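Tutorial, part two.
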Amino acid sequence: MANQHFDVLIVGAGLSGIGAAYHLQQECPGKTYAILERRDAIGGTWDIFRYPGIRSDSDMYTLGYNFKPWTETQIIADGPKIRDYVRETARENGIEKHIRYGRKVVKASWSSETALWTVETKVGRYEAGVESQAADKIETYTCNFLFMCSGYYNYDKGYVPDFKDRENFQGQFILPQFWPKSLDYTGKNVVVIGSGATAVTVVPAMTDKAAHVTMLQRSPTYVVTVPQNDGLSNMLRKVLPEMLVYRIGRMRNIALTAGMFKISRSRPLAVRRLLLAQVRAQVGGRFDMAHFTPAYNPWDQRLCAVPKGDLFKVLKQGKASVVTDHIERFTPDGILLRSGKELKADIVVCATGLEMQLLGGAEVLVDGRSYDLSKAMTYKGMMFSDLPNLTNTLGYTNASWTLKADLIAEYACRLIKHMDKTGTKICVPRNHDPSVQPAPFMDMSSGYFQRAVDRLPKQGNKAPWKLFQNYAIDMTLLRRAPVEDGVMEFTRPTGMAKLRSVSKKAALTV
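Running the prediction step on this input gives:
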């Protein structure tokens, strides 16, 4: 197929990609663009994951876009409602017609001579872990600017520890991202391996039909009860415009989340006691609190939200239980633990997390040379050193993803408009400051990050190379600070310089 050119290409039609398209339309209305989506549906994470109880652990006032109010009464929303919200945004703003479905980006090559990205896609129907028969067909696109909105997980492959003798297990072994549509767990004994957001969601959701559900964890996670509905906002809707109610709720929840994180860092023991006390009050005095008492401080890993305390309710009712132990091996009937106890299971759900993967796993080249992300440094948490005309959307680990996604899209539009104004075509962050010291990409002890630390870029010890994980600071850096900061370089294509040189020589000859 002939090459197709757009001013901007957006990779991914999930929450970030649809938001980026909206901001591009608003801020740069003259720019042509297309969205390359590997699947055949809008929604990203919220369309891929279909396990029981799938929901956000962030409130929708902050997970929602800054331009479109969340109007449902349920602020800790389930997956289908979030998916509908994203699709509605695309439909209302004419974004759907720009989406090219079934396009998996496999290579992106930058040319400084032409100031263009050449993007290769495999064409086919993709589902998690499965490629269609037509996936060997290649389509090529070019663009001036590339928005990577594909998240930071490999959705084709979940993380599965090397469980001994797993092949001997006679029951069903399931990964949440590949949930079987026809699974019937009525009357079954279910073991859910894991203690993160997926596990604390699946466990209470499966107690509706299962005989019993056991959450098997190697180590505990901090779990906090949050309201599923916002009574104050529901009351304000009766007297105030919807957008104003949304903004009030949004700013309030941003402040609460930031305050909680700050206190957790400054007074970790006090916050630890508070978190454990609210669990104890809900599960009762007879419950072994060791199952909810992590060895680390609050926010060394992300907190897990429990809407209306649903996990604690099923534990108290005896419909579910928690076991903290290590897996020795699988048996035909279940799992043998290091303590010697065997957990009988008809179904085992492996909620042990995903593998991190930036830029959708695509191969990236700059002027014919392979670009190594592990040797790069992140710029303002959204670009990478020496990588031109490319933004990568990464949300917060201590707040809602979309807060940062909106800011990144707005900043990318600022860059594009600045280049149009100055007649430049290339923007690239370069580190010329020898005092900038590299540090790990994220200050998190979570397993999914630690497993990928050698493949990830670094951050610096000061702005603009430092990843602040702070919405207030990022608003200043991305929305208000000048784009010409001495680090971002704006240039013209090298091909233009050659052309001017040739023209000048030709004129002298004449």
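The chain has a mean pLDDT of 91. In part three we will examine how such features are distributed along the chain.
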